[in-house]
Structure formats: C-alpha cells, structure tokens
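DM from R.C. (forwarded with permission)

"hey, sorry to bug you on a friday — could you get me a structure for this? deadline for the figure draft is monday and I only need the backbone to look sensible"
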Amino acid sequence: MNFRTTIILLILLIGAGVFFIVANNSEDPPKKASPTAADESGRKLFDVKSADIKKISVVPGAGVANSSQPLEMTKVDDEWKITKPINWAADSFEGGNLVDTIVDLRSSATIDLTDKNRSGTGLASPRYTVELTDTNGKVHKLLVGERSELGRLYVQSGGETATASVITEGRLAEKLGKGTDGLVANIRDKKLVGISTFDAKQMEITVGGRKLSLVKDANAWKLTSPVDLAADMSEVSDILTTISNLRADAFSNEATATSRGAKFEQPRAVVTLSTAAPATQPATGPASQPAARTVTVYIGQPTDITEEKVWVKVSDPASVATVSLSKSSFEKIADATVLSLRDRRVFDLDPETVSEVSLTTETSGATQPSQKQSLKIERRKENLELGPQMPKPEAGPAAAPATSPATKPSASQSGHLSWVAWASTLARGASLTTLLQSEGAPATKPAVPATLPTTMPSAVASPAGTQPTTTPAAIQPAALPVMPEPPPPPKTKWVLGSAKGADADDATVSNLLFDLHPLRATKFLAAMPAAPAGTQPATQPATSVYVLTVKAVAAGGKATTYELKVTDRGGDTKPIGQYQDLIFELDRAFVDKLKNKFDGTDKAPAPPPRPQGMPQGFPGGGFPGGFPE
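My reply, with the result:
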C-alpha cells in the first residue's frame, strides 16, 4: 500500500468519526403529531347529551322487514318506558343503550348527493326515520339509508340535504337489523308481572275446581277461603316470589301459543295478585293512594318434554311469553291446599305456665312384647309467702371465750384451709395477716428483744452419737381454721312425681318445653299414613307411641290441658303427630327429646372434684413452703 492510499483511507476514517459524533449529539427531528381519537372517529353528528334526551321514536319505512309498527319511548322519572306499539316498561340498560348509540354517531366521510346517487344511498326513501327530543323540546332528526358497497351506512342528520354522512355500521346497524319488531322485543323489560311481593295485598290460586283466597293482614298472610286460618309466611312468600319474578324468555302472541299447545283455555293453574287492601281492612295510608292494580297469570302447558319452560299469559299488561319455571316451583303452586298453606304452628305453650307434664310411652314390635312406661313431672311447689325454702344451717362451733388461750392448738388439732380456699380468699383482697387474725391468730405479735446479738454462734458439728442437750423450740405458724362447707346446690324446679319427689333434670325438661313454644309441624296431612307397603312384619321396626299431656295455668288461674300423640315407626319414616283434629309430620329431633331420661342419668358424669392443694397445672401442688399441710 502506497502513501497516497494511506492518506485517503485516513481522511475517510476521520470523516466517518466526525459524522458519527455529530449524528449522536444532534436533537431528533420533530415527529408529526398523530391524529387524536376524535380525528380518527370523525365528526359527531349530534351536539346533545344522552341525559338531555326525553323522547325517542324509530319509524320504519315502507317495506322494511320485521317492522310492523314504529317504536316510541319516553323517559318518566329517569326510567325509559315504551309507549308504542305497547305500553310497557323498557329494560333500563337496553333503553339507555339505544339512545347512547344514536347520540354518539360519528361521520367517517361526507359525500355529495345528486339525482343519480341519491337513490343508491337509500336516502330518497329512508329505511328508518329516527327523532330525538331533548328537554328543551328541540327535535334531532336522523335518516337511515342503505349500506354502501364497503359495508358502511349512509345517513343524513340535522339540516343535511345536499350531502350525506357515511358511518361505520357498528351498533346502530346491529340494533336495526331485526326491524322495529325485534328492537321492541329487545328493549322490552322481560319482567311480566308489575306487582311486587311487598305491594301484593291479596292473592287467589285456582287449580281445577279448587280455589284458595289469601289476604295480607298487616304484615301477616292468612287464608280467607275456604277456611279462615293463619297462613305460613314461608309457603306464601315462595308462591308470591315465583309469580312476581316471572321473566319472559321470549315474547309471543296468543295465536302462536295456541297453535303450539299452550291450552290457555284449560290452564294448569291461575294466580291473581292485587294491590287492593281487603274490604274489611281499615285504610291507614294517605287519602291519595295509587290506583289499585290486579294482575292475573295463566300458566299453560310446558313448551317441551323437559317441563322446565312453560307458556304464560298475563292480563295486565296483556302479554304472552315462554318462561323458565322449574317443575318444583310449579308443583308448589299447583299442589297448594289449605294443609300446605296453613300456619305450621300447631299450638304455642309458654313454659313458665306449665305445672305438670305426663308422658306415656308404649313400644310394640313383631318380635317383642309390648312395653309401656309412664312418667310424671311436676313443678316444685314453693311457699309463695316465704319464698323458696333455704337449707337449714349446720351447727357451728360454740361461742368463743372472751379471751383467747395463751397457746393455740396445733394444726393437726384444728385443721386448716385448703389451698383453693386460701387462694380465693386472698384474691378478694384480704391480706394474709388479716386472714389469720380474723380466724383466731394472736392480735399482737410476740415481743421482739430491744437488742439482738451482733454475732451468731458458729455452727459446730456435734460429736457422733451425741445430741445437744437443748434444742430451740420449733416456731409453728398459727393454725388455719376450717372453712364451713359450701351450701348445697339449689333445688331443681321440677320433680319426678312418679319417683316420690326425686329431683328431675331441669335442662332436659326445659328442652322439651322449648319445642312446645310453639310446636311446629313440618307438614300437615289429610289422614294418618299407613305402614310402608311391602314391609315384612318380622323386619318391621318397632313402633313407639308417645302420649304427652301438659297442664298449664294462665295468669288468671285458668287451667288448660294439651294432649299430643306421637307415633314413631322408626327407620326413615317421619314421626306423625296428632293434636285434636290435626295430623302432621314432626322433626325427628322432637322424638329424641321424648326419649331422654328426665332424671339426668343419661348425661355424661361430671368430672371428679379437684384435690386440695395447688390449682390444676401448678407443679407439685400443695401449699408454698412454710405453710402447714
């Protein structure tokens, strides 16, 4: 390589380095600003807010499919309501969403309209005419034409006459794609019954030729026909909730429903709800009340073999639809009777008024002889003037002499307190000195010499086999007195009359009486059920029959006797109760309480008493060092 070539390469290398330095140190050129979201989405067609719109109408053009009638909605108390083609509440979300879709329309392009292209855009005879009316009464108009070759939609808004806007189909095309009929079906609130469970004051259930009438008295429901009885709130609430919450899966019409076998002329059940107060109930509200409303629901045949959807016809507002109604929910309506709707309370007995309880148990089986047992429990009779009898006080020690003897007996002679008694006494704030003095310890301490020896004799080991001639007297602490035994536990409220006044177990008796306050049936029956079919006598469980008789005395002294008979066939069968003319099923837990031992012998034994000494958990037990045992 010659010198000239070297110089050229060196110059090129220096130039490349200078370019690299300048390029890295120079500022970036300004970038072109990206278009905003508003620029990309286009011009907004309407200068109005959705919240300011109070009315909207969508009128279909001639020949538009699935558009038999126009749609009109009005906002009332911030809720959208359909006024055409039906008078019906609008779904709050769907109604507001339609208004938002139209108000938020933006133009992506504008074209000039001529006589040649006007018909091609569909704006010469618009497919839909949409009008929005705001709170000031101004009408915002939108004409909707055909789709373009690129799938966009031609529209005209405001005062456009010579031009048209092109918008992306989006949500508007989707909503209008099914015509106004589909739009109404989509916006229409799916709730069929406009009476809530709270507003309902009367209900009538008709199944075949059987009719049940119920009214709400204050906050409680009661049957008025065919009998006058308190109703079970849970059962009535279940039926009310089912009817009030019916929602349409799909709206239809009566002609279509009839052709598909709805059979509304022979409904499986008819339920009528009314907001009118019963005629016998006094008016308690203000003079101006909303007009009473009555809605009748006809439940027709199932739509298919699954029987999970049925045809339903509603009277006000008139509608026909298919609804989801489970088989169990329908059966609760169709099988409603006086027995299923009456209050589950058989009777209500205040335990404090009970004076006597008698129980007779008879058990019989195929392989064992009949056994009969009787038990009588009585409330313990107290002297009402003097109150409950207290235990007699035990004979205490003789009166102490005026002066204490010079010497106290040893601890072994007088006894001492247990550690538990000491601990409990000291825990109440008494000092040890005070305790000893109060129990006979010397009032004054022994005299202490004025002077004490300054030195103590040194410890000298005694010779083996010898003992010192004298030993210092052992200093014994004052003897601890014997605490009186705790009083016996209070006597029980109940005694076993069949066991010569032996104590009854109060908790067991109270648990039984608690279930009578009130006694609740799980299900009422029309007749006493027969024994399970196909059961062989040899394998049939033993049958126990309990007769419970309870005597109660009211505050005025009026005595009432309740007699309850319970038949328990064992196994998986429900215990059957009989009271007066009522037959009903009971919870098995009630029978378990009848089987209890009312003297408490079937309870777990109490833990043994804790031995004297340190409380449980302290190592070693007993008194601390220096205390006598």
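R.C.: lifesaver. The first strand starts at residue 43 and ends at 44.
me: no worries. Residues 202-279+291-343 form one domain.
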